[in-house]
Design brief:
By secondary structure, the chain is an alpha/beta fold. The chain is about 35% helix and about 15% strand. The protein contains 31 helices and 28 strands. The strands form seven sheets. The protein has a seven-stranded mixed sheet with strand order 4-10-9-8-7-5-6, with helices on both faces. The protein has a seven-stranded mixed sheet with strand order 18-24-23-22-21-19-20, sandwiched between helices. Helix 11 links the parallel strand 8 and strand 9. The longest helix is centred in the middle third of the chain and has 39 residues. The protein is globular and about 85 Å long. Bound molecules: pyridoxal-5'-phosphate. The site of pyridoxal-5'-phosphate has 16 residues, from helix 19. Pyridoxal-5'-phosphate binds next to helix 19.
């Protein structure tokens, strides 16, 4: 391509150079990333446009996005940077973060990510680009790893049931509280409204617990557990072990007291400490929660990290989050899958008991791998070293005339001092951060990264004389700061998986062995409607491993986090520009958490307006399950709005409902473009109706990939929306998390955004443990925006629409496509109707999904929002050839269905019902099917070039649910006859 343009280079305000050269190299460099991120090239674009009957992209967009909501001005976002430029830029920003040695603790500890895990899991697209393992047959690797996580949590906490991660320790504590509340109270009939909260719980945990309690009318009673009077009005209690001041308390008699009052106890705890301490289960606790961060996951200014929850067996049907369970496949072999079939058993629309959906799968996998690599002995050694270092520091500080707040501890001591500012200035000179509780209490938390030399520096901060310090590490004295009656005696992590892979070669191969079982974006496209599985570019991911981003403590002094401040402020500003809003909170750790935070914001606004009675949320029938679930969590009443046959919101029904609840109307939750994949022309009318009745409009941003640069929530009349940075803004899904669900709001809602105990000037409660949630992965979205720039962002949206319409057009010749707009076009996704085949060939959507695996593809979103359908979203990042392969697969499958319809294939024994076909089955000596092995495993020529083998045959869900096993089974169960 040949350009002849004039370039204006501004070096500084006063100097301007005009260069007349023949090629605009700036522009070309600036477009570099867009051409990498967007799949189709110019030639392919023309062909695809031809297929759908358009001459250019603009034409297509004009007929897709209603005119009345289109953006008139380009986004005010700086020109795009090339990948190289971006890496230089982000390095400079990173250096504004100052690396100190952190002894702050408070739930976040320095941790060493073993390099073999860093390189082969954390930095490996084979692990981080995966989706939540709904398609079990091509997800056995991460299912196995998550089962390891559950086993590790269950063993260390001494409780039999564990889930596969939650968002953070504070929300896990709040989830436990709600689980207890629901178990002890009937929704309409609350007899036990009180929850006891021990005062020595981490402040951020208390903050989130208070936020969660309020909408349910839960009365949180804070006090000293040792003096608490627990009567029949309590449904539960929370204590921390070791607690906020590091103290190891014996809760046995307290737990007995709570149980006597017919209430439950949750213990917030620390997995590393539990290698040495009597586990919560043995103390009688009903539930344990905490963070697995210190199992090899970087601090990252607050996240992402995996929280855990384990429980007594009685909570099997109540536990929030995903649970991985053991079952068998169609060949009778052991196979894993998400248990309890509905997977998110707790998200039961308006009957929900939690809204958790995306959690922290990738980080749970890292933590599990850390335990696999170190094994029980290795973990214990790490814990003992920490405990010995802590007791050494304690004795030395005591020897210098100080006293400690608590006498028994694991890794944290709190020292009483006359003037903490003296200690602080000494510490800061040595680039050390302690925790400063107040003027007189200084906390020191030792962690895995602490080495002997560090102890000198720590102790010297408490040394008044300037003499050289000498001390002894009395290893032989034992762990005398851990009370004997709370010393762990039971074994843990005895399963072979935790005792087999301790050399790097073994570990490397184990990680690869699991990775090979999973279909990720590095194998083929994952066209999950509503989930936006787009490219997670390597350049976006690289800075995450840099020390200046990964080693910053979330509660480090603000002056040390200049780089993060710049990242957070600039990204917030871009997100406001993109959404057409005025303020943004990056705190929520998932889409659902964003919904919850946004609804609390609306609620607080109505209350401030003197309208606390406004608590009815209208939610269209087609909404994602998390919408009503979040409304319930925010204490709102859900009223469902009907849909028309074409999938649009029934505006007449909306008017009736808005009128019926006029004075109580809090607002509406809409998804735009709708979950049916169309831009409803009536959207502005809908938002107007709600505003006329005094309600607020919440927009679920799951489909923002169809809006960026073309339209905006602000333009359609919304007041608040969440974004899924793990969809639209390139954060990978990590096999079910991490996620980031920031909320953007109009100015009138800004003051009601979530606050945090560590943020001054915020009166609202926190929704996450860390003030900026999963701060480190904000880098990915920031990189995405900076490297695409305004033009690239818009182009990405246009291509998302082009790609979807191209596939729609190809598939429409073979399948019924549901819900298109008046011009017959879809937005960035579309729904293929598979329901007719149930009658004509006894084929269900699931059979098509499983058969796609034989063609090397992950199924699209199944049965959402319409049962019996699949929803396809290719994203802009797929090229024509890949989309053609996928369409060819579906078209061939249609022929396979036709063969059944026409009696050429058996109704029971056919390619679809028996799918997926494993390598084992296809190469077995016996082959009893009427179709050939080639048809089973290599149905199209491209499959022969790049075959992905599902590692198990179709998984039996019901069998596993009837007999729930959610930890690694005894070894005998693996033995195959
Ligand atoms: C439309 C819609 N809303 C909300 C969510 C929930 O988002 P998250 O999984 O990040 O909590 C999803 C998730 O897939 C979704 O598709």
């Amino acid at each position: 391509m040949h350009f002849s343009l004039q370039i204006n280079i501004y070096l500084c305000a006063s100097k301007k150079f005009n260069l007349n050269i023949t090629m605009n190299f700036f522009e070309l460099q600036s477009r570099e990333f867009a051409t990498r991120h967007i799949g189709p090239n110019e030639r392919e674009t023309l062909k695809m446009l031809q297929e759908i009957g358009f001459d250019n992209l603009e034409q297509l967009i004009n007929q897709t996005v209603p005119e009345g909501i289109r953006m008139s001005e380009p986004l005010n976002i700086p020109r795009a940077m090339s990948e190289h430029e971006f890496l230089r830029h982000i390095k400079e920003v990173s250096l504004k973060n100052k690396i100190f040695r952190n002894y702050i603790g408070q739930g976040y500890y320095g941790a060493i990510t073993p390099s073999v895990i860093l390189r082969n899991v954390f930095e490996n697209p084979g692990w981080y680009t995966q989706y939540t393992p709904y398609q079990a047959e091509i997800s056995q690797g991460r299912l196995e790893s998550l089962l390891n996580f559950q086993t590790m949590v269950s063993d260390l906490t001494g409780l039999p049931l564990a889930n596969a991660s939650l968002l953070d320790e504070a929300t896990a504590a709040a989830e436990a509280m709600l689980m207890f509340f629901n178990a002890k109270n009937r929704q309409e009939h609350i007899t036990k409204p009180k929850f006891f909260l021990d005062k020595e719980t981490f402040p951020q945990t208390k903050d989130v617990v208070y936020t969660r309690a309020k909408p349910f009318g839960i009365e949180v009673v804070e006090g000293n557990y040792a003096e608490a009077v627990i009567d029949a009005t309590y449904f539960g209690a929370l204590v921390q072990y070791p607690n906020n001041i590091g103290s190891i308390e014996d809760y046995r008699s307290f737990i007995g007291k709570v149980h006597e009052a017919d209430a439950y106890v949750v213990m917030a705890t620390d997995l590393l400490a539990l290698t040495l301490l009597t586990p919560p289960g043995e103390l009688g606790a009903d539930v344990a929660v905490g963070s697995a961060q210190r199992f090899g996951v970087p601090l990252g200014f607050g996240g992402p990290h995996a929280a855990f929850m384990s429980a007594k067996d009685d909570f099997k049907r109540l536990l929030p989050g995903r649970i991985i369970g053991v079952s068998v496949d169609a060949e009778g072999k052991r196979a894993l899958r998400m248990a309890l079939q509905t997977r998110e058993q707790h998200i039961k629309r308006e009957k929900a008991t939690s809204n958790i959906c995306t959690a922290q799968a990738l980080l749970a996998n890292m933590a599990a791998m850390y335990a696999v690599y170190h094994g029980p002995k290795g973990l214990k050694q790490i814990a003992e070293r920490i405990a010995i270092f802590a007791q050494t520091v304690a004795s030395e500080i005591e020897a210098r005339g100080y006293t400690l707040v608590a006498q028994s501890f694991f890794d944290t001591i709190v020292v009483k001092v006359d003037d903490a500012s003296v200690i602080k200035s000494r510490a800061e000179e040595k680039k050390i951060n302690f925790r400063y509780f107040d003027k007189h209490w200084v906390g020191i938390s030792i962690d895995e990264t602490t080495i002997i030399e560090d102890l000198f520096d720590i102790i010297s901060c408490f040394e008044n004389e300037s003499e050289t310090i000498a001390f002894e590490i009395a290893e032989d004295d034992g762990l005398y700061r851990i009370p004997e009656k709370l010393t762990r005696t039971s074994a843990y992590l005895t399963h072979p998986v935790f005792n087999s892979y301790h050399s790097e070669s073994q570990m490397l191969r184990y990680i690869k062995y699991l990775e090979n079982k999973d279909l990720s974006l590095n194998t083929s496209m994952i066209s999950l409607g509503s989930c936006t599985m787009k490219l997670n570019a390597a350049t976006e991911m690289i800075p995450l491993s840099w020390n200046h981003w990964s080693n910053i403590h979330p509660f480090a002094p603000v002056e040390q986090a200049g780089g993060y401040k710049e990242l957070i402020d600039t990204l917030s500003q871009y997100l406001c520009e993109i959404t057409g809003f005025d303020a943004c909170s990056l705190q929520p750790n998932s889409g659902a958490q964003g919904e919850y935070a946004g609804l609390l914001t609306i609620k607080a606004y109505h209350e401030a307006q003197g309208n606390p009675q406004r608590n009815v949320m209208l939610i269209p029938i087609s909404a994602h399950g998390t919408n009503p679930a979040s409304a319930v969590m925010a204490g709102m009443k859900v009223v469902v709005v009907k849909a028309l046959e074409n999938g649009y919101i029934d505006v007449e029904d909306l008017k009736v409902k808005a009128n019926q609840y006029a004075d109580q109307l809090a607002g509406i939750m809409i998804t735009y473009p709708s979950t049916y994949g169309v831009y409803e022309e009536s959207v502005k009318e809908i938002t107007q109706i709600i505003h006329d009745y005094g309600g607020q409009v919440y927009m679920d941003g799951a489909n923002m990939n169809a809006q960026v640069g073309l339209t905006a929530p602000g333009l359609i009349g919304a007041d608040v929306c969440h974004l899924n940075l793990h969809k639209t803004f390139a954060i990978p899904h990590g096999g079910g998390g991490p996620g980031v669900g920031p909320i953007c709001v109009k100015a009138h809602l800004a003051q009601y955004l979530p606050g945090h105990v560590t943020m001054s000037g915020h009166s609202n409660g926190a929704v996450s443990a860390a003030p900026y949630g999963s701060a480190s992965i904000l880098l990915i979205s920031y990189a995405y925006i900076r490297m695409l720039g305004a033009e690239g962002l818009k182009k990405a949206t246009q291509y998302a629409i082009l790609n979807a319409n191209y596939m729609r057009a190809r598939l429409a010749k073979h399948y019924d496509i549901l819900y298109t707009n008046n011009n017959g076009l879809c937005a960035h996704e579309f729904i293929v109707d598979l329901r007719p085949f149930k009658k004509t060939a006894q084929i269900e959507a699931e059979d098509v999904a499983k058969r796609l695996m034989d063609y090397g593809f992950h199924a699209p979103t199944m049965s959402f929002p319409v049962p019996g359908t699949i929803m396809i979203e290719p994203t802009e990042s797929e090229d024509k050839a890949e989309m053609d392969r996928f369409c060819d697969a579906l078209i061939n499958i249609r022929q396979e269905i036709r063969d059944i319809e026409e009696g050429k294939a058996d109704v029971k024994d056919n390619l679809l019902k028996n799918a997926p076909h494993t390598q084992y089955a296809v190469t077995a000596d016996a082959w009893t099917h009427a179709y050939s092995r080639q048809q089973a495993a290599f149905p199209l020529p491209y499959v022969k070039l790049n075959k992905f083998w599902p590692s198990v045959a179709r998984v039996n869900n019901t069998l596993g649910d009837r007999n729930l096993i959610c930890t690694c089974e005894p070894v005998e169960m693996y033995v195959e006859e």
